[in-house]
Design brief:
The complex is a heterodimer of chains A (196) and B (290). Chain A folds into two domains: 95 residues, Fumarate Reductase Iron-sulfur Protein, Chain B, domain 2, CATH 1.10.1060; 80 residues, no CATH class. In chain A, 57% of the residues lie in helices and 0% in strands. Chain A has twelve helices and no strands. In chain A, 39% of the residues are buried. Chain B has 290 residues and is an alpha/beta fold. Chain B has two domains: 118 residues, Glutathione S-transferase Yfyf (Class Pi), Chain A, domain 2 (Up-down Bundle), CATH 1.20.1050; 146 residues, Rossmann fold (3-Layer(aba) Sandwich), CATH 3.40.50. Chain B has a four-stranded parallel sheet with strand order 2-1-3-4, with helices on both faces. A four-stranded parallel sheet of chain B has the order 6-5-7-8, sandwiched between helices. In chain B, helix 4 crosses helix 5. At the A-B interface, helix 6, helix 7, helix 8, helix 9 and helix 11 of A face helix 2, helix 3, helix 5, helix 9 and helix 10 of B.
Chain lengths: 196, 290
């Protein structure tokens, strides 16, 4: 039997994390949170979450980094902005979710073969290389890296979409692909310079 | 009237019918759309949620391209519409973001301009065309076809740019002007799960099931959408959704219904690209099917 202390000491909290979250775009007002719970009430995904949005707001601003970055909730957010519209303190909750996701990816904290970060990675690669997304290739690449077996189950849908001309093997790409690379590199450089 | 047109990636793929019907609809209204030359992906929710700065720069390139033509942008895809709008707001509100974007655009010989307006086709129909003109052009009215208007998330949230965030009615009014009967649909802005159907299938399916069964329960014959991802989600998984009893509900773009009412032949507005047949439904109601 493994025994663990279930109550946190003040010293267990991570002050760096608190500073970071309140400086992210959208996280500026996180200290204003009233804990009213409107965000959790309106969130269509909260019924599947380990920590609801209300709890995530509290945990983040108090520096419970492990709990927050290890939470499944940050991956469940579909970015529907319902919470943000309801929040009486106008906290940009969706953006806080983005910041947490970004940080979890940067620290490599997600289950292996987990589809959401894989999709993000493949998506960004395709944009860099082609300038546009071709849905069929994106889906194929994500499933090959996460859940090959599910491709079989999807073959009949794939065929229907192919037959109706909604999916093909051709790739969408723009002429100014070089510009996209320059654009992305410039963002990376400025970000480093300004430590954003 | 003339607008710059930003289709976005989905309208060249799974949402092809949206593009076809949108172009037909605006043609019928004598409105010219000029596709932005060599536009790029806006970054969508996928990029936005993991690297916002890059997403702003990607979106800003399209805004800068449209600014050169001095035209308002029409962005039919809900995700593109939101990303372009959001980019403008964040560049305005955060000087640091502005600096990053302006510098990046400068490197490829473009300048950012605040002057471009990003507009949704529904808003253009309501404010620039007007309901009366729509009714006048609707030579083949929908004869009380029962439609549940589904707005999804990203055209009404987080910014109420042209409609109410809790109970939007722009699509209701446009479709009613074409002769449709609007079905009460309280889930009209509930999220369809977006890409969750691909990444967390069980949860995605739950969300889709609510939306479909609520529309069915309220007597809808068709659901009308404004977003390629909503359309895809609602249409493609009806068999899995039904718990043994498949739900059958055609999911059309609002522009397909409008263009249809304006007399566009079915093949030119992508009716044949649907996976749930809608032809018999229209034949039943004696809406001429060309």
């Amino acid at each position: 039997m493994e025994l663990r202390r279930t109550v946190k000491f003040e010293a267990d909290r991570d002050p760096e994390f608190v500073r970071w979250i309140s400086q992210t775009v959208g996280g500026e007002k996180i200290r204003h949170c009233l804990q009213c719970g409107l965000c959790s009430g309106t969130c269509p995904l909260s019924l599947y979450m380990d920590y609801t949005p209300r709890r995530l707001m509290l945990l983040s601003r108090e520096g419970f980094k492990e709990e927050v970055l290890g939470s499944a909730s940050i991956w469940l957010c579909t970015s529907c902005y319902a919470c943000m519209v309801e929040c009486p303190k106008e906290i940009n909750i969706t953006h806080v979710m983005y910041a947490l996701k970004e940080r979890a990816i940067a620290e490599g904290r997600y289950p292996k073969r987990f589809a959401i970060p894989v999709m993000a990675e493949q998506f960004s690669r395709m944009v860099r290389r082609e300038g546009r997304i071709t849905e069929s290739w994106l889906i194929l690449k994500v499933f090959l890296r996460t859940a090959i077996w599910r491709l079989l189950g999807m073959s009949s849908l794939g065929w229907k979409l192919f037959r109706t001309g909604r999916m093909g093997l051709g790739k969408e790409r723009i002429a100014a692909r070089k510009d996209i690379a320059v654009l992305l590199d410039s963002v990376a450089t400025t970000r480093k310079e300004l430590a954003l | 009237m003339k607008y710059a047109y930003y289709p976005g990636c989905s309208l060249k793929g799974t949402g092809r019918a949206y593009e076809e019907s949108l172009l037909a609809m605006f043609r019928a209204l004598d409105i010219e759309l000029e596709e932005i030359r060599d536009w790029n992906c806006c970054g969508a929710t996928t990029y936005m949620s993991v690297d916002e700065l890059i997403c702003y720069a990607l979106a800003a390139r399209n805004l800068a391209l449209a600014a050169r033509e001095h035209l308002d942008i029409i962005a039919p895809c809900a995700a593109c519409y939101l990303v372009l709008n959001k980019t403008q707001r964040y560049i305005r509100d955060y000087p640091k973001i502005k600096l990053v974007v302006e510098r990046a655009l400068g490197q490829i010989g473009l300048t950012y301009s605040e002057a471009v307006r990003v507009r949704h086709p529904l808003e253009v129909l309501l404010n620039d065309v007007g309901l009366r003109a729509i009714t006048e052009r609707a030579l083949r009215p929908l004869k009380g076809l029962k439609v549940a208007p589904y707005y999804g998330c990203q055209i009404v949230r987080p910014y109420a740019t042209f409609d109410d965030q809790h109970n939007p009615t722009s699509m209701d009014r446009v479709l009613a002007a074409c002769g449709a009967k609007i079905v009460h649909y309280p889930l009209k802005t509930r999220c369809c799960g977006g890409s969750q159907k691909g990444t967390l299938p069980e949860i995605g399916l739950d969300l889709i099931r609510y939306l479909l069964s609520e529309a069915k329960k309220n007597g809808a014959e068709v659901i009308a959408t404004v977003c390629p991802l909503c359309q895809f989600n609602l249409e493609c998984f009806q068999r899995e959704c039904g718990n043994g009893q498949p739900i059958s509900m055609p999911i059309l773009y609002f522009s397909q219904l409008v263009a249809w009412a304006m007399g566009a032949p079915a093949r030119t507005i992508g009716i044949q690209r649907g996976l749930v047949p809608v032809e018999s439904l229209l034949a039943e109601r004696e809406i001429a099917y060309a």
